[in-house]
Write a structure and sequence with these properties.
The chain has 448 residues and is mainly β. It is 10% helix and 30% strand. The protein is built from 4 helices and 24 strands. Strands 1, 11, 12, 14, 16, 17, 18 and 20 form an 8-stranded mixed β-sheet that branches. Strands 2, 3, 4, 6 and 8 form a 5-stranded mixed β-sheet that branches. Strands 13-24-21-15-19 form a 5-stranded mixed β-sheet, with no helix packed on it. Strand 22 and strand 23 form a beta hairpin. The protein is globular, with a radius of gyration of 24 Å. The protein starts with a helix and ends in a 57-residue tail after the last strand. The structure holds copper (II) ion (CU). Keywords: Copper, Metal-binding, Oxidoreductase, Signal. Pfam families: Cu-oxidase_2, Cu-oxidase_3. This is Multicopper oxidase, type 3.
């Protein structure tokens, strides 16, 4: 057998066994397992998984495989991406301060790679910077990284070889280290999210690594809303959300319903005296932030506050149609662009109705800008948006989506009038029209 064939066969076997272990460890198959083992609460990587390890001569041994994969951002959008062990992000590595770890890295990509352990204190030669601290891991090769964990906290891993391409293609993962003596204020649920952006242009199926600013998809753990799982908790539980950012933008992460505390970062969990109350925390590029809160019943939005980051694919060079009466020119434009539909005169909210109805078919393999549906209608969000769902009656460790919140009666915002001239509100400035008849006809229940 030629060397390359042997490597391919060995690699396929490794990959297959990694996948079967992955399935066993998949969060969906472990809904009701006890939440605690070996002194820590395992993290829950939404839509993701934690890599199983084995003890080998007192060393915790992990095996990562860098490879091309097929990934689904949400039903309706798939792409050829690069990741680890079959997924993007790669599996979460989870260990305990003081552990000796060995991480085998097999390269099944068509180009060389390395892995940098972002934020970890280790010998320089284990730092994973191609050319500086090690030779490249060539296609087909396996390298071993080995070091002792001297810290705890939320960390990441990613290539330090052809980073622009390899990270744009999805190569990244989380590396969580638990403190060896437990935590003075333990958490009941420990979520982990990795933020990223993708230039998956409408109608295409491979991310474009050359894009610097105008991205199409904004993801938490490489998924967009509504495909991002909710963060589920029981009323009164202490919940931690660990957030890492390996995208090309900073993300002000905002949560409704509570003042969360920022309790940790790349530097581990901070002393309680340093915790601070916030409702929005910027997670900068290359940074990690841990936030914690005591769960309050309800369905609460949890999202990036950059408004374009809670949208899916959109054109970046379309003209501004806001306020433009396009009646009459739609037919003319259709002679040039068959299927063109005049839109946007009154804002983009109608977009979801058009795409839902199927009469405005977008490009292949391309998600509508906003897709979510809630108990009160279209949610009008996509991208980096999900929900924190807190209920009084959940069992510990039950992460299943509990459905929509049943609001106590009298606690939901309600309509008191459908007359635009209702009441006598104080107004200043220069309102442009007092003609209520000029408003578009309400179409809350419109079906195309
Ligand atoms: Cu953002």
């Amino acid at each position: 057998m030629k060397r390359r064939d042997f490597l391919m066969t060995a690699g396929a076997a490794l990959s297959a066994s990694a996948m079967s272990r992955a399935v066993a460890a998949d969060s969906h198959h472990a809904e009701h397992t006890a939440p605690r083992r070996q002194g820590y609460t395992p993290v829950r990587t939404l839509n993701g998984w934690t890599l199983p390890w084995q003890m080998n001569g007192g060393v915790k041994e992990f095996h990562l495989v860098a490879e091309e994969i097929e990934h689904e951002f949400a039903p309706g959008s798939r792409a050829k991406c690069w990741g680890y062990n079959g997924t993007t992000p790669g599996p979460t590595l989870e260990a305990v301060e003081g552990d000796r770890v060995r991480i085998l890295v097999t390269n099944r990509l068509p180009e060389p790679t390395t892995i940098h352990w972002h934020g970890l204190l280790l010998p320089a030669g284990m730092d994973g910077v191609a050319g500086v601290t090690q030779p490249l891991i060539m296609p087909g090769e396996t390298f071993a990284y080995e070091f002792t964990l001297r810290q705890h906290g939320t960390h990441m891993y990613h290539p330090h070889a052809d980073e622009m391409v390899q990270m744009a293609m999805g190569m990244m993962g989380l590396f969580i280290i638990h403190p060896k003596d437990g935590e003075p204020e333990p958490v009941d649920r420990d979520y982990a999210l990795l933020l990223h952006n993708w230039a998956l242009h409408p109608g295409t199926s491979r991310p474009d690594p050359s894009v610097m600013t105008d991205f199409d998809l904004w993801t938490m753990n490489s998924k967009v809303f509504p495909a991002i799982e909710p963060l589920v908790a029981r009323t009164g539980e202490r919940v931690r959300v660990r957030i890492g950012n390996l995208s090309m933008w900073n993300h002000p992460i905002h949560m409704h319903g509570v003042q969360f505390q920022v309790t940790g970062s790349d530097g581990g969990r901070w002393p309680a005296a340093q915790w601070r109350n916030e409702v929005t925390e910027i997670v900068g590029v290359g940074q990690m932030r841990d936030i914690e809160f005591i769960a309050v019943p309800g369905d609460w939005a949890f999202h990036c506050h950059m408004a374009h980051h809670t949208m899916n694919a959109m054109g970046h060079e379309i003209p501004n149609t806001l306020g433009v009466d396009q009646s009459g020119i739609e037919a003319e434009i259709r002679t040039l662009l068959p299927g063109y539909m005049a839109m946007g005169q009154h804002g983009m909210k109608e977009h979801q109705q058009h795409t839902d109805s199927g009469h405005m078919r977008g490009p292949d393999n391309t998600l509508a800008m906003m897709m979510g549906k809630g108990p009160f209608g279209n949610i009008g969000m996509g991208g980096m948006f999900t929900l924190v769902k807190v209920r009084d009656d959940l069992a510990p460790g039950d992460y299943r989506d509990p459905g929509w919140y049943a609001h106590p009666s009298g606690t939901v915002a309600r309509r008191v009038s459908a007359d635009a001239n209702y009441g006598a509100p104080v107004r200043r400035g220069t309102p442009l029209s007092d003609n209520a008849a000029s408003l578009p006809v309400p179409d809350r229940h419109a079906h195309h």
